[in-house]
Amino acid sequence: MTEKFTMNCTEVIKKTIAKSKNAALRALQNYDLDWEQIRFNQLSDTCTFKIQTTKDGDYLLRIHSARSMEEVNSEILLLDALNEKSNVILPKGVLDRSGSRVVKVDHENGSYSCVSLMRWVEGEHITTGLSEEQMYKEGVLLANLHQASSQFEIPTSFTLPIWGEGSFREAMDRFTQHYDTCMTDIEFSLYQSAAEKILSRMNTFEKDDTTYGLVHGDLHQGNIVFHQGEPRPIDFGRCGFGYFIYDIAHTILGLYPTQRELVVKGYSSLRELGEDWIVKLEDFTVMVMIENYSHHAPDPRETEGLKEEQPYAQAILRSYLSGDPFLFNEIKL
């Protein structure tokens, strides 16, 4: 079975990073790469390392947690197609000596890790001071990705997750087990009510080629870098099947109302949003917020930040449950 990361305490996190680095070094032996330095980058669902070379640029090596060889292979297949069908600069997979997109690294306990190597995408994160033009361009970027993914001919062996009712129920189950690290029972009850509303509405959404397809699945601000003024998407590790508006929700969740408007304007300059798009976008924005908390609640590195966010999150939930529009309005705490 594939190795799954656990991050329930600092000591376990340190051991996970050390074990992942060992797996990374073993995996590098499968590539014709004259590398000179390996540096830890990030640990989340994937443990990543930046691989630096003298002559051939930089790479990103990924140790995947609980992802199958088929799923990682499908992600890189999709990226190959998107690189061909769009003008967007995207991550691109690197084949090993045998021509494989994914390397399997066995562990002593009988489990294994899937490892992949990607070309490093040059750019910088902009955490504050995004211009109106940059926000608009993020919307255009999303629309371009969805246009390109809609043209992708899905192979028979293609395997990627589905982001919808089933995955959301799983997220709520996980959240239920860990919410008490960062909120009270009363606060969590609002999340439960919001989840029930989302699930009841999701069954009514139409699903066709214009509304549903292959999405990035995690295109928040941390997964967008800018190079020479142009946004570039990174980290497609959560790509899968879902509503296109679900992708937009990821991008706008952490933005101010006026910034959200600019993203939507950029997107709608290339693609139509469809009927009742504001209401659906509110549904998916709350859904994404819940999924984020479900993902981060077990991680002790995130606890204080999640606690600090609760006044704003609770205000969003109250507005959503009462039917008051909140996406493009200032929220009163």
Characterize the structure shown.
There is one protein chain. The protein has helices at residues 10-28, 69-85, 132-150, 165-178, 185-202, 244-252, 257-268, 277-296, 303-322; strands at residues 35-43, 46-53, 58-64, 103-106, 112-119, 212-215, 224-227, 230-233, 240-243. The chain is α+β, with helices and mostly antiparallel strands and 333 residues long. Strands 1-2-3-5-4 form a 5-stranded antiparallel beta sheet, covered by helices on one side. A hairpin with a 2-residue loop joins β7 and β8 (230-233). The chain is globular and about 55 Å long. The N and C termini lie far apart (46 Å).
Please state the oligomeric state of the protein chains shown: single chain
Order of helices and strands: HEEEHEEHHHEEEEHHHH
Spatial shape? globular
Mean pLDDT: 94
Number of strands: 9
Structural class: alpha+beta
Sequence of strands across the biggest β-sheet? 1-2-3-5-4
Major sheet: size, sense and barrel closure?
Answer: 5 strands, antiparallel
| Low-confidence runs | none
Radius of gyration: 20 Å
> What helical percentage do the residues reach?
40-55%
For the terminal residues, how far apart are their CA atoms?
Answer: 46 Å
